[in-house]
UniProtKB/TrEMBL annotation, chain A:
PANTHER family membership: ABC TRANSPORTER PERMEASE PROTEIN YPHD-RELATED-RELATED, RIBOSE IMPORT PERMEASE PROTEIN RBSC
Protein's organism: Rhizobium straminoryzae
Alphabetized CDD domains for the sequence: TM_PBP1_transp_AraH_like
Protein name: ABC transporter permease
Membrane topology, as annotated: Multi-pass membrane protein
UniProtKB/TrEMBL annotation, chain B:
Domain ABC transporter: from-to ranges: 9-249
Keywords tagged on the record: ATP-binding, Nucleotide-binding
Pfam families: ABC_tran
CDD domains named among the record's database cross-references: ABC_Carb_Monos_I
Protein name: Sugar ABC transporter ATP-binding protein
SMART domains cross-referenced by the UniProt entry: AAA
Cited InterPro entries: AAA+_ATPase, ABC_carbohydrate_import_ATPase, ABC_transporter-like_ATP-bd, P-loop_NTPase
PROSITE patterns: ABC_TRANSPORTER_2 (PS50893)
A Gene Ontology molecular function term of the record: ATP binding
Amino acid sequence: MSAEPNAYAGHQPRMREATLLDRTIAHGGVMSIALFFIVCCLFFSVTTNAFLTAPNLLNIVRQSAPLLIVAAAMTFVITTGGIDLSVGSVLALTATLSAASLQAGIPWPVAILMMLALGALVGVIQGYFIAYERIPAFIVTLAGLSVIRGFALLITGGYSIPIEPTSPFVAIGRAWVFGIPAPALIATVVLVIAYIVFNETHFGRYVTGVGANAEATRRAGVDTRRIILWVYVLSGMAAAAAGIILAARLGSGSSNAGQGFELDVIAAVVLGGTSLFGGRGSLAGTILGALTVAVLANGLILSHLSPFFTPIVTGFIILVAIWLNFRLFRGGARGR
Amino acid sequence: MTDTSVSRVRMTGISKRYGALQSLDNASLDLKPGEVLGLVGDNGAGKSTISKVLSGAVIPDTGTIEIDGRTVSFTSPADARAARIEMVYQDLALCDTIDVAGNLFLGREPKRRLAGVPMLDKTLMHARARDMLSNLGIVIPDTRMKVENLSGGQRQSIAIGRAASFNPSVLIMDEPTAALAVAEVEAVLELIRTVSKRGVSVILITHRLQDLFLVCDRIQVMYEGRNVAERRIEDTNIEEVVNLIVGRKFAARSAGHPAERSVSA
């Protein structure tokens, strides 16, 4: 009865192992931002003399350290399908409180630990309402944005609090270690740890799982609520660290610091190819996204253009990068 | 444990209400070691809900669950997994953006320690994932592929492979063959026979009534959240099962030609 045996046998398998091109397309988000980053760097290298010099490049990393640190934590938050709008306010609160506590004579290491604990506490409170009370993250952290900024203003009365320039605290923002600025070193350490945690640990895997299919992850025996709580603790602590670094670099704590900072952070993360719908995150993309934003701001100033071009250009790049992502690198965008 | 006097699973008086809907109303379920139970009923009869109660995904309002004679109370799917109860969910419960191996091991990824810090052992995961899939005859060329890029049949195979590969004592399958092609359905039925011979108890929920007669020892019929009937497979036929499901005499064409069924009647 086997009329055409050859019709059943002798085929090449229809599925093949993923090739390099497949993998490139699957990481389309990172590829398109890498492209933008390189184009920006080349453009400013050619059009300005000062851009491609070691001091300038180190300065870029030094200034973007708070952005890089918070964007790394925000990648975890957004990958779970959440958002944290309160990071700019937490940055302002910890910047002012670290200045205030140094003024009150608290030793600087204790002040740093207190600020990190405060950031974690903010994260626990917001994370509790999001994970256990199931209030949308946008609403909880929008409330947080308002309340926390309010506390910062209330404590300072709107003035900025100076930090003694002789305090060892300012070294966190100003010191150079082995020819590298301290904030850049701190940011690098944070990024390396974040990269490993995101890609190589169970926690990172469950963060992606919660964003991809929270119910499936729960049914697999994972305590998804604890995972969600933890990502907000991480973003709270990262924002506190950013506040400390900023206060140390500027030598004062201002309650008006970090206005709109949360939007820069979210822009950097989204530029890097992390999906706002959750389930798809890339720390490599986030680093490139944050650096692109920083390079743009720096390069436009060096080109003697108005710094007010920065938000305009950044906005366009967000749109074009995401558009490229959808059109050119379709693989990664399937079903979303 | 092949002592058939003690039930592997005994669920009694299980009730669950979702707002206005009484999803389960004093339902019960009994399952012997190595037994294959077919759970049938119309949509909304409570089949999926009672199986989710057993897998820990749904917490019942009332009722008791005994596993091997010991009363248990599952507060999360992790508890049920610890009791070696595995389930293939109707919606498959896969994470689209995680790769094949990651989905197979979701929730119990192998650890390795790097400077004392526990990390995912991806090498071991992929190696064991390949073994698991080939043991079950599932063809997926690359365990690094993301699940979203697979076909419906492949996705279903992965959900089945995940539930069957971790030495379960109870295997619950909710519509496991819905997206499968003919040969793949045969493979799943064969898998059910194999694991039940090893002493694994199986609960099979399906609308393909002919499959029940190929693998099940017993059929339990549910109707609007209650148990309405129970039959040994050798004492019934498709026509009777159809009538029990819809709750009245029903000359169902899907029950097939009467002459072909008279053997089992």
